[in-house]
Design goal:
The protein is an alpha+beta fold. It is built from one helix and five strands; from the N terminus they run E-E-E-H-E-E. Strands 1, 2, 3, 4 and 5 form a five-stranded antiparallel sheet that branches. A hairpin with a 5-residue loop joins strand 4 and strand 5. It is globular.
């Protein structure tokens, strides 16, 4: 697995996976096969990360997004099942 990015306590990292298999995807939608592929996207706020996750899922219902805090802990997971109820902020 790629190394978790170093981010500040105010930032969040987003990770995308195939909803059916759980396989991690890069930001082009390709299966992560090596460490050269970028699998984390960093956002300066939780709101930005949520907005991005919702926009990705809106275009591809087969993915899920995990939003992680600076401690590499998942704070929110969004997929097509909870998309409509996902908060705009926590």
């Amino acid at each position: 697995m790629a190394k978790f990015p170093t981010i500040s306590h105010k930032q969040y990292a987003l990770l995308i996976a195939d909803r059916n298999t759980g396989h991690v995807l890069d930001f082009k939608g390709n299966l992560k096969l090596n460490d050269a592929q970028n699998i984390y996207r960093v956002f300066d706020s939780l709101e930005e990360a949520i907005y991005f996750a919702k926009s990705k899922i809106e275009t591809n219902k087969q993915i899920e997004c995990a939003i992680l805090n600076s401690l590499n802990v998942i704070v929110l997971k969004i997929d097509k099942m909870n998309f409509a109820n996902a908060p705009e902020r926590l």
